[in-house]
Amino acid sequence: MTPREVLDFAKKNEARQLDLRFTDLPGLWQHVSYPITQLKEESFEEGFGIDGSSIRGWAAINESDMLLIPDATTVMMDPFTDVPTLVMVCEVIDPITRQHYERDPRWIAKRAENYLHTTGVADTAFFGAEAEFFIFDNISFDQNQHEGYYFIDAEEGRWNSGRRENNLGYRPRYKEGYFPCPPMDHYQDLRAEMVETLIQCGLNIECHHHEVATAGQCEIDQRFDTLVKSADNMMLYKYVVKNVAYQYGKSVTFMPKPLFGDNGSGMHVHQSLWKEGKALFAGDGYAGLSQMALYYIGGLLRHAQALSAIIAPTTNSYKRLVPGYEAPVNLAYSRRNRSAAVRIPMYSSSPKAKRVEFRPPDPSANPYLAFAAMLMAGLDGVINKIDPGESLDKDIYDLSPEEMKNVPSMPGSLEEALTCLENDHSFLLKGEVFTEELIETYIGYKKKAEADAVRLRPHPYEFALYYDI
After folding, report:
1. Per-block mean pLDDT, blocks of 10 residues, the chain (469 long)
2. pTM of the model
3. 296 vs 68, 226, 267, 377, 384, CA distance in Å?
4. Within 10 Å of residue 411's Cβ, how many Cβ atoms?
5. How do strand 17-23 and strand 85-93 relate by DSSP bridges?
């Protein structure tokens, strides 16, 4: 839409509030609201002033003034507000220089798309992310100087099978929640409403289903789109899923590993490059891939350990990425094999459907940073012709310890991942997509606010292990 069309859209929908949204460095949507009368055509150039000093990972107090410039192409009506509210995603602008703010994750994603054009390799990068989540009925947690705990409950949780009151059975067994029909799948109707709302908001939804874990693990799949648009869609996806569940008195979490002893939530990311309407990943190589696609895989695998700090960016991520289980910690590629970090889906023989799926990411990632970083790693592989090595079509869990020595793996902790990013990030600096200052800020924030904060606190299980020593 043009600015004039946005104003007409607001009038047609009787909007009374304007809600402007942007994303902080860790990846949460932030917003500020105005009476709709504050929106003018000139607002799309002049913007709206905000204080950026309290936004996580953003400016210091002495450089806190920022402008939000609405992106007219992202306009929609909020489906959850009682007062009719027009929503737009914004660009973040420095009011002094009138340049894009370097720490705005959405601008980093746009720079990645711009860099792709300058390379001549392709003109379009498509991303399709499959973000899993849990639906809980009750969650309580606290951490202070003398206690630390969490309690999770879900009507569908297998642990409730022994409950005496109001117990009708039909709960997925641990690791057996994939694709059961109702009544075992408690959330068919709730997911269907989530899907209807997502479609109403403009997303193209392909399917939805129960996932492997008990206690309401689900997945709703979106159709692929261009990099920035896919990241915008992921932010909207999270917003809608959380709010629909909340309206029903339930809570959704995209935390990658909330339950011990059952599957965690991943965000498998399908990727492909196109040029002038032609799919570039289809060819006559392994699994129907082109040499370009194999080099792209080589880049993902070469830089996967550094990428991990961005695509699996929480301490909890490494409760999911544990060797010896189903998580894709092994840095190898394979057709069909989901135990490899990179999988080549074989559902269709169409060249347009040829893509690579990177499986280590999880939905705690900031999608703008994650998609941009993966594209930069893949492009580094293409430009420098990085050989991905031999494919691994065996069941990785049947390999001997000696054979596994030749298969590198993802880092085992956020601290290790951040060190990997410190040591390997020059590929992110190409085209000034990421900057040295941004990477330093990101690593510093993650170390202080998350890695060190968790490391300094006693873990509840330590009492079970050590209290009586």
Report:
1. 95 98 96 97 95 82 82 97 98 92 95 97 97 97 93 96 92 93 96 98 96 96 97 98 98 97 95 97 94 98 98 97 79 82 87 93 98 98 96 72 78 97 98 96 96 94 93
2. 0.96
3. 35, 17, 19, 8, 10
4. 23
5. parallel
Residue 254's alpha-carbon distances to 55, 238, 453, in angstroms, are 21, 8, 20
Smallest CA-to-CA distance from 232 within 342, 100, 345, 87 is with 87
**Residue labelled with tokens 């705690």:** 364
CA angle 171, 177, 181 (to 5 degrees): 75
340 SS3 class: strand
CA distance 12 to 1: 14
3-state SS, residue 380 = helix
Rounded Cα gap, residues 357 and 352, in angstroms: 15
Q: Give the CA distances from residue 128 to residues 227, 320, 332, in Å, rounded to whole numbers and listed in that order.
A: 9, 21, 20
Residue 325 neighbours by CB under 8 Å, 6+ apart? none
Sign of the Cα pseudo-torsion (82, 83, 89, 94, in order):
negative
Q: Which residues are catalytic?
A: 51, 130, 132, 211, 219, 268, 338, 357, 359
Q: Which of 41, 38, 60 is nearest to 51 (CA)?
A: 60
Reduce the secondary structure of 39-63 to three states and give it as a string. Answer: CCCCHHHHCEEEECCCCCCCCCHHH
Q: Where are the alpha helices (DSSP H) in 201-226?
A: none
CA–CA distance, 336 with 341 (Å, rounded to integer): 11
